[in-house]
Amino acid sequence: MKSFLVRGVPASIQTDSWWMDGITRHLPPPRADGARGPGRLERIGALAALILLADMLLWGVDAGLSLALFGAMLLFAGLAMRDGKGWGGFILGAFLMLPLVEQVQVLSILFWWIGLLMGAAWIGLGGWPGLAGAIRGALRLIWLGPWQTANDLWNGLSMTGGPSTGTLSKAVLGWALPLGMSLIFLSLLIEANPVFEDWAVGLSNVELPDLSRVSFWAGIAVLIWPVLNLAEFQERLRPPGRVDRHGPRRLPRWLNPEAVRRSVILFNLIFAVQTVMDLTYLWGGVALPEGVGHAQYAHRGAYSLLVTALLAGGFAIVARPFAEADRWLRAALLFWVAQTVWLVISSMLRLELYVGVYGLTRLRLSAAIWMGLVAVLLALVLWQIVARKPAGWLVLRGMALSAGVLYLSLFLSFDRAIAHYNLTHEVRKDAYYVCRLGPAALPEIRAYGRRTGHNLCKQFNFPEPRQIGSGDWREWGFRDWRVLRRLEKLETSAPGA
Question: Residue 30's beta-bridge partner residues?
Fold first, then answer.
């Protein structure tokens, strides 16, 4: 049938009339300014470029600076496909990926994933949806992304006509017959002609990418493609409308006003006994019973009181609704949470006393950080009760505060801090533990040897400076670089240097 073209018809009407002929048009939706966003071919081109970039940065090397660069470039590509909408998502994602530049570890890789998901959700929504909306959108992307990739691949390979047929489908249909028949003819000619056979043998010696590398390309494509199609997720990433709840929430029968009131009274009495004992022995300096030292008293209570404080905070959140209409119960609940905060402070003092005798370890340093975090979280619980804030208010701020503490701790070299404290304070020197801390402790050990003339790690196999870091810039880490710089300064400042 001969086509009839009416000149002067707007492009939008031409596009809307796809159903009048059998040709499928895959055009991107128009933007607000009337222009069209990136189409499928542009996305496929960006996909190929990012796969090539991933191969250059990530294949065959350990994760390091290269992984942070790739994550930032991936978010930048998604931002470009969204015409710059949600640019804050790129900044947030790049910020959360910074710990990878410091050092590659489990938590830094976890923050890389969180930064990628939350940044992509922000870009996909086209603006900041709030902390709860960003977290919800990031969680939805975990399963929406692979699903969208599989759906687009299916549509691209679809052999049916109509609007679902893609460019890839046309390419398959157009090349299946000629390539298939050509392979058959070539196999027959190779069998019949020795010259062709020699050529085929020569071509078979060409080195092709191994299966593991091809699998890496396929896996990285599944990660890249959803980020290039974030506009299609916008509606599915939006938070759902509020569901009206009919009537109050049903609580377990054992959780009733009388049980909560009696629990708070008993808890106050039990915590008061512990508070008085801490004031007497820890803060008042009263001598402990015979056979019990301050270090032993401190060690036995430091970790158990931290768990007690966490349980107390959880119960306070559950009990708060019952205290809304009861002033006496509300005051008792506030007093109990305040006692819990004091117990955490006492636990920190216990830990300090124990560390003053036996030195720092990774567990003790981590416990000190978490004790401070729990104390702040309990202060938030106090404010929630006083200001009558909902539970969601506390949960979001608790999650943000915990994530912030984890993020900042990734920039702290625990091994260096432990070695520095243990080797510069009058504590029991556990040489085996210090020498097994890791490369970050090596400058402190060398400095200790310079001061005392004692080679602490002579009997242990400690990594030499040449084993720290890598010559490949893709594996570069800021912490390893700092260690090497400190070692160079120690060597240049040596008396015989």
Answer: 36
Instruction: Classify residue 231 by its DSSP letter.
Output: G
Residue 357, classified by CB atoms within 10 Å of its CB into exposed (0-12), middle (13-18) or buried (19+), is: middle
Q: Which of 382, 385, 386, 354 is nearest to 367 (CA)?
A: 354
- 124, 234 Cβ separation under 8 angstroms: yes
Phi and psi angles of residue 30, each rounded to the nearest 5 degrees, phi first: -70, 150
Distance CA 168, CA 42 (A): 14
pLDDT at 94: 92
Structure tokens at 168: 């890839």
Contact 163, 18 (CB under 8 A): yes
pLDDT digits (tens, 9 = 90+) for 123-167: 888 888 777 778 887 888 877 777 777 666 666 555 444 444 455
> Is residue 202 within 8 Å of 89, Cβ to Cβ?
no
Which residue pairs from 427-431 have beta carbons closer than 8 angstroms and sit at least 24 positions apart in sequence? 427/355, 427/356, 427/357, 427/358, 427/359, 428/357, 428/358, 428/359, 429/359, 429/456, 430/359, 431/456, 431/457, 431/460
The verdict on pTM exceeding 0.70 is no
Calpha distance 105→480 (Å, rounded):
13
φ, ψ dihedrals at 90, nearest 5° = -65, -45
Domain segments of the chain: what residues? 37-195+213-239, 257-398, 415-492
User: Which amino acid does the sequence have at 206?
Assistant: V
- The DSSP output letter for 465 is G
Q: What residue type is assigned to position 286 of the chain?
A: V
Within 158-193, where are the H helices? 167-192
Helix-helix angle 87-102:478-492, to 10 degrees? 40
